[in-house]
Design goal:
Elements lengths: L1 E7 L10 H12 L5 H22 L2 E7 L2 E8 L6 H18 L7 E7 L3 E8 L20 H11 L5 E8 L8 H10 L2 E7 L7 E8 L4 E2 L4 E10 L8 E11 L2 E12 L2 E9 L5 E11 L12 E9 L3 E6 L8 H9 L3 E6 L7 H4 L4 E5 L4 E2 L7 E2 L2 H12 L4 E5 L14 H5 L2 E2 L11 E8 L6 H15 L5 E7 L3 E3 L9 E2 L4 H10 L9 H14 L5 E8 L8 H9 L2 E8 L3 H15 L3 E4 L5 H9 L7 E2 L8 E2 L21 E2 L2 E2 L6 E5 L10 E8 L2 E6 L17 H12 L8 E9 L2 E9 L12 E5 L11 E4 L2 E4 L2 E7 L4 E8 L7 E7 L12 H8 L16 H9 L18 E6 L1 H20 L7 H13 L9 H24 L3 H7 L37 H18 L5
Parallel strand pairs: 3-4, 3-6, 6-7, 9-15, 16-17, 16-18, 18-21, 21-36, 23-24, 23-27, 27-28, 28-29
Antiparallel strand pairs: 1-2, 2-45, 4-5, 8-10, 10-13, 11-12, 11-14, 14-15, 15-44, 19-20, 22-33, 24-25, 24-26, 30-32, 31-34, 34-35, 35-36, 37-38, 38-42, 39-40, 39-43, 41-42, 43-44
Helix pairs in contact: 1-2, 2-19, 3-18, 4-5, 10-11, 10-15, 12-13, 21-23
Amino acid sequence: MFNHSLAFDSPGYLALLALIPLLWWWGYRSLAGLGKWRRWMALALRSLVLAAIVLALADVQYQRKNDQMTVVYLLDQSLSIPAETRAAMMEVVKQSITEHRNADRGDRYAVIVFGRDAEVEIPLVETELALHNRVESLLDPEYTDVGTAIQRAKAIFPHDAARRIVLVTDGNQNLGNAYREARAAADSGVSIDVVPVYLQARTEVSVEKIDLPAGVQQGQPFEMRVVVNNDAPEGSGANVAGTLRIIRKSGDDEQIVAEDQITVPPGKRVFSIPGELDQTGFYTYEARFSPATPTDDGMAQNNTATAFTHIRGRGRILLIENFDTPGEFDYLVDRLRTEELEVEVRTTADLFSSLVELQAYDCIILGNVPRSSGSDADNVANFSDAQIEMLTRNTSELGCGLVMMGGAETFGAGGWSNTELEKAMPVDFQIKSAKVSPVGALALIMHGGEMPKGNYWMKRIAAESIKVLGSRDYCGLVQWSGTDQWLWGRGSGGIVQVGPFRQRMLSMIDRMTIGDMPDFDGSMKMAAAAFAKLGTNVAVKHMIIISDGDASAPKAATINSLKQQGVRVSTVAVGSHGRWGSKTMQDIANATGGKYYVVKSASALPKIYQREARRIARPLVYEPKPPVSPQITAPNHEIIRGLDVDALPPISGFVLTDVKQNPLVEVILRSPIPVDEKTSTVLAAWNYGAGKTVALTTDAGRRWADTWTAWDGYDKLFSQIVRWAMRPVGDTGNYTVATNVGDGRTEIIITAMDEAGEFLNNQAMTASVLTPGDATGAGAQTLPVTVEQVAPGRYVGSFASEDAGSYMVVVNPGAEKSPIISGVNISYSAEYRAAETNVPLLKSLAELPAGEGPEGVYVEEGLAAVAESDAADGADAAVLDPFRDDLPRAVSNQSIWPWIIVAGSVLFWSDVFVRRVQVNLEWLPPLLARGRDWVLRRERAAPVPETMSRLRSRKQQVTSEIEGRKAAARFSLEEAEARGDADLPPVDSGAASGKPQPKPTAPPTAPAADAPQPESYTERLLKAKKKVWDDRDENPRNK
């Protein structure tokens, strides 16, 4: 399976190996003093070091050749392919793997499914898995991106095997560039086999687009054009009869403006329909084709197209008011209408649902509108985060004006703090000045864990409450976890200031777990004690309890303590246990002056908590006594131009705000009290993005500014506020905007002419497009569009429009000119436009050679033939064998020169060691002997201490000396007698001989008493033994 070898990236350096013989010739003489063996070893090591250096210079590589095959199947799961065909693809893959994979060779395979994106359905494996016919991966099937699928296949291919892609698709790509990615893959050695999915020939009628002029004037006739395409099979020539309806939509109003019986011949047909509108606004037109015979049309999804137009006229205003107080701004509406401004009034119960819907208006007024409103759980309404984002983007990106008018239910007092709306206004809704202390405290008691998804909803409503509070407000949360516990601030009373800890509170809420609280008294008593510690530092104290009502009622003393401190308790009953559970919570609310809610749907909980949490923002409402007249601080501003600045009537109240520290903010009116100029703003304005926003912190005459309604400057002031903020509504000139959709992009074509019908050239036009986002509008983006002049009076730009939905186009013709609002609606995915297989593209992919290997295979018979072939018996029946062995063997190279360098370094220091260090080998024989004994399992004698060895040696020496002395001193009488008298000297007999006899010698003197006596043998032996034992005591190693 594998072949191993070495390769060199720079083989020319190998010629340096010829220096090795020269190294031996020179070194043999110079190293003669080392001895025979050391000299040979040094020369060998030097040769190896030189060889390592040469191999590193030549970039030696470890090379492995592999005959394995890796096949990746790419299966198209887009909607242009019938569902039954998509389901059959996995069965074809299963049969192909079973019939052709060479398990002995270790062939591997993988399956990737793709639509808009590509996902690995089966990872790279070399064993047969139990494949399912059902695709498990989640895909967006409304688009086809073959290029992304090829990229994904390249990413999972191994480098140690031949590589092949089997592409199963109809080739109708509408995203990406399949040929470019396939070419890159083929250049890297990947073979591409193509199995086409042939789409059944059928008649397909589609409404491609509806063209409307942009910026139509009120009462001006115009013409709309509908393009219908009949993509009939070649040679059929079938006409398709049906009904073409034109439907006009404006807000919730829907009306059929045209309905004609038409016949569509093969090819494209343009139908012109006249139109005229007397009412201004933003209109959506929808063209819908219904075939007389349903079987004459392959797909119904592509039979609808939509477009927009903006009917120009007088400025159109949308005023949104609180549905709890309808008619609060009727006087203002009447006065604006007398100033030739169209005003439409909606309540918070009938809010907008899309950004497109807001394009009918040039200015939006929020009149004393809280974020959440309603009197009970069944009719609570609020602005969602998506709707708030639509409001602000409508201003910053599309130029619509936004005016926020006061009352006790708006700005910070209305729960708008920490929202995108606050960012858009020229004032902040939270007071940062310590001189003004509008502080409130909120306690949350959470006991809703038994409701469905209870923990989720408890976290959600607690987080919403924290977001509503200002930075200087206080908040605490009591939960049950075996006992009543504060979620935070346990060491400081439980209720702490929000500002420094807001993010920490939100993170702790996200981790909390709600238990089943047995009674209300413990938690309410804790909250009462915490409120008491705050004392007079807070102006409003409020408590919210959520529960199913099965906890026992609090004690009367606890309720009295809360009432004495002015704490109001609102209760929210969720899934209460009958009317008795609800009664307990209702009694708590009634006793403390709070509000009682019965919640049937959990989705209403965040709205209720937003509404209740803003009760502690009441101190933001400032009502001076007596009323004060605002002071004009910007007399030259357009809003108050022409007004009698000395005749402003007094106001009796407004909402405290904090002016943004931005040079674009202009404070126009300010109250003389409080003295802090930052918090006493009455009227401020600024430019916010492409639009303008205005903050009027007092009302429009219902309560605080009631004296203004009798003032002769009332109409002028409020009309100028609106006109200053609204986007321009003047003559847009002779401009027409058309759009053309194709290949995932939309082209904007602008024709500009002057009043005389002459082309306008060199216009500084800009444009932007608002993408659709998801169903709620979230995720929408505003993208700039480059507009260039391509011909006299003709300007063109384009943008990507791959996703289905509504694209809002805003064209700015130039300075001091009204923007032109148009749009295009991608009613259906490009998948629904495909009618036949893209054979030319698929063949071009298969014809790409795999590096130096052969071209891929294009299966002319298609997917059905492959399925039948693989199901048949016998190898001869195979139409496609993706595991065939026709590609060059995979070669993997790995540079190993770093390891060669490491080895050469070790050898170099070994050479130095051999030449500089002479090794004594006397230790070798004992070591060999010990090894031999261990191998032969011989038992070695125990080691004898050195002292005992010396003693034994000395004993033997002394013994031999004594024996020698004894042998020398012994006299053998028998030996002397045997020797005879002849050997003896003659004996003198005295007189007989005539010689004198020798005199006897004196006896030897006795030795002195103190003379040292020589030690006996036994004494010396005993002394030696004693010394041995003393040495053993002193040196434990000799024991």
